[in-house]
Amino acid sequence: MIVIIFAIISIILCDFDERMRWGTYKPQLIHAVTQRNMKTFNPITGALMYADHIGTDDRSLVYKIPDLNTEQVKINPVHHNGKDFNVQVISDPNTKSIIQTTLIKFPIESKVNFVDEIKTLVIEKPLSLFYVLTIEQFNQFNLETRTFQVNVTNHGIRVSTYNEDETRIEHFFITITVNDRNYQYNCTDEKLSNLTIRTLFNDYIFNYDPRPSLMQAIFSNSTNANDSNLVAIEFRAQPGDNVIIQVTQTDKYTPDYGFDNLEQLSDSLAAINKFNFKKVFGTDNKCAYSSFSNLMAGLLFTYGNLSCVINKDTCTAFKPMLSHTPSRFGFPRPFLWDEGFHNMIACKINPDICLQSLEDWINTMSIDGWIPREQPRSEELRSYIPWLKEDPRESNPPTFFFNFEYLIDNHPEYKERIGKTYLKLFSWYNNWFRTQAIFNDKGKFSGFLKWWGPDEDSNLGSGLDDWPRTDGSKVSKYNIDAQSWGYFFTYHMAKLARLYDVGIVNNLEQRLELILNKMNSDMLDPTDLIYKDILYYPNTDDQVFYSPHRGYVNLFPLGLGLIDKSRVDIIQQHINFMRSSTMWTQFGIRSLESNSTEFRKKSNYWTGPIWVNIQFLVLRALKLYYWEIDGVQQFYRDLRSNMIETICSQLETRGYFYEHYNQNLDGLGQGNRPFNGWTSLITLIIAEKY
C-alpha cells in the first residue's frame, strides 16, 4: 500500500506546474492566497479578514463569504483568469466599507512570486483589517514543525519560514500605506499606534475553521513568541482612510521594500485579460466575462480523505484535488458532474488547469473503479456538511467526456498524457455500468439502465435529486436519463478505444447499438413521441408504464444528440413539448411540467425551477446536431435570448449569479449564491461556443 501511495504521488509531482503553486485555492473565504503544496500537503495561507472596530470581545470577524440569508454583502470577482491575476471588490454595508483585493503572480524566473494587495475604497466607520498568515496542518502523516519568524523593520513587517521541503526560506513582506504615506512600523506609543501583530502556535485548529475557535485563537491565545504558526497583523483604520496593505512573497531574496506601481500593472493585466478572453470566446460581453471570472474564483485545491458509507480505499486514502466548485459559500467542494460542465469553459481558456483537474478526479478513483460524487477532502470542507457520507453504489453523469473530447480534438499535445488515464477511465466505465445497468438472470446486460438511489424516489446520483421517479405505488424500472448517459459514456469510451485500445471497439459498438435500440423500442411513448422513464409495480414484471411526469429527464436524448436527425417528427415534437405552456416561460424551460402532480413539491429543487445546465445542453444539441430542421433555429434563438436576459439582468440588479431561477412570474435567482458553477455556462451561451 505504501508503494502504491508513493507511486501515485510521484506521478503527480512529475507533472507539477510550478506556476500553479500559489493561487486563490480557498474559494469559501472572502479572500485567501494559498499553496498547492504537492510535497508535504501542508500549505502556507495568507488571508484577509475584517471586523468592526469595537471592543475586542464583541467583534464579528468576517473571513468567510457571508450567510445566505443576506444579499447585502456583494463579492464581485472583477477579473480572474484562474492562473496569475485577479481583482475582487467586497462591498459590505454592515461595516460601511468597500475593499478591493488584487493578486498578481509573476513568472517563475522573477525575483517575486506574487504580490497580494488589500485596498480600502470606502471606510465610513472604524474598521479593523487583518492579514493572517498560517502554516496549515492538512497532512496527518507529515506533522508540521515549521514556524514563522517575524521581523519589524523601518520599511515593513517580514514574516519568514522554510518552504515545504526546508531547502529555501519563504518571505512575506508586508507594507502598509495610509493616505499615500508609509506607516511608521516602529511606533512604540500604543495610543498612537494603529497596528497590532499577534502570533500564536496553534496545535488544535485547522486554518480558517468555520467554527468560532479561530476568533478565540487570534484574540485570546495570542502570544508574542517568535515560534508561531499563525501571525495576525491587524491595522485599525479610521473613517476616510485610504489604506493599502501589500504582501510581497518571495523565496529568492530577503525583501525590505514593497512593490511600486501595482495599480498601473494591474490595469495593464486587466486589459490583457479581457483581450485574451475575447480572443478565445469571441465576445467582450460584460455578463459573459463576469461569469467566467466567477467560475475561476471558485477554483479550489484541497487534500485529505472522505467520509463514506463503506470505507473503500479512496475514502481512507489522503489525496490531493484541484477542482472548480459550484458555489463558493453553498457548495465549497468538488462535485463530479458539475466539474464536467465547469471544464467546458475552463478547457477553452485554461486547458492545462482543465486537464489537471480531470487527472486529480481520476486519481481519486477506488481500486474497483468508483469515483465519489462529492469530495470534501479536508476537515475544513467537511465542517460545512458534517453529515455527508459518500456511497459507492451511487454514480454521477460522466460529463468529463465533454472535456476529454475537446482536449483530444483541439490539443493534440495532450494526447499521450490523456492516454495514461485510459485504463482508469475504462475501470470507471465498468464500475458505472455494474452499479447503474440492468442485468438479466444470466448476468448479461439487458440494454437498459436505472439510477441507483437510497430509495425509489431519491436520485442524488442522477444529479436531479428530487425529480419524481415514482407514481403512486409504481416505481422506476428504467430511467431515460440514465439510458442516455449510458449511451454517451459508451460512445466516448469507444472513441478513446480507437486511439488507445482498438481491440475492444467492436464490443463497445455492439453495446451502443443495444442501448439505442432499447431506448427507441421501449422508452419512446408513441402517443406523444417523448422519451420517458419506465415504471412498474414492485415484485411483478407483467406490466410496465410510461411515467406521467415530464420535464428535464425527458430532454436528455435530445440534449445529448441521440435522436436520429432523420426522425424529424420526434425532434419537432420535443420542440413543441418545450414550447408548451406547461414547460415554457419567458425566463427559460421549467424542470418539471406545471401540470405534474409533483410540481413544486418535495424540496422544490428540480421540480419546477429553471436550471442553466439543462438549457445549455438543449441549446448545444440544437446548434450542433439539429440546426437544419424546421423550427429549430427560431426556438434556439428564443430560448437563448430568454436565458441571457434572465441571468444577466439578475447579475445587473442583484449582483450575483444564482443556482437556479424562479419559473413563476419574475425569474428571480434562487438557491445558493454566488453560484460560480454551471450557471457560468452563460458564457458559452452568449459566445455560442459549444
UniProtKB/TrEMBL annotation:
Family annotation (PANTHER family): MANNOSYL-OLIGOSACCHARIDE GLUCOSIDASE
InterPro entries (alphabetical): Glyco_hydro_63_C (IPR031335), Glyco_hydro_63N (IPR031631), Glycoside_hydrolase_63 (IPR004888)
Chief location of this protein within or outside the cell: endoplasmic reticulum
EC number: 3.2.1.106
GO biological process, one term: protein N-linked glycosylation
GO cellular component, one term: endoplasmic reticulum membrane
Catalytic activity: N(4)-(alpha-D-Glc-(1->2)-alpha-D-Glc-(1->3)-alpha-D-Glc-(1->3)-alpha-D-Man-(1->2)-alpha-D-Man-(1->2)-alpha-D-Man-(1->3)-[alpha-D-Man-(1->2)-alpha-D-Man-(1->3)-[alpha-D-Man-(1->2)-alpha-D-Man-(1->6)]-alpha-D-Man-(1->6)]-beta-D-Man-(1->4)-beta-D-GlcNAc-(1->4)-beta-D-GlcNAc)-L-asparaginyl-[protein] + H2O = N(4)-(alpha-D-Glc-(1->3)-alpha-D-Glc-(1->3)-alpha-D-Man-(1->2)-alpha-D-Man-(1->2)-alpha-D-Man-(1->3)-[alpha-D-Man-(1->2)-alpha-D-Man-(1->3)-[alpha-D-Man-(1->2)-alpha-D-Man-(1->6)]-alpha-D-Man-(1->6)]-beta-D-Man-(1->4)-beta-D-GlcNAc-(1->4)-beta-D-GlcNAc)-L-asparaginyl-[protein] + beta-D-glucose
Annotated keywords: Endoplasmic reticulum, Glycoprotein, Glycosidase, Hydrolase, Membrane, Signal-anchor, Transmembrane, Transmembrane helix
Domain of life: Eukaryota
Record-stated family: Belongs to the glycosyl hydrolase 63 family.
Name the UniProt record assigns to this protein: Mannosyl-oligosaccharide glucosidase
Domain (Glycosyl hydrolase family 63 N-terminal) ranges: 20-184
Role according to the record: Cleaves the distal alpha 1,2-linked glucose residue from the Glc(3)Man(9)GlcNAc(2) oligosaccharide precursor.
Membrane topology reported for the UniProt record: Single-pass type II membrane protein
Subcellular location: Endoplasmic reticulum membrane
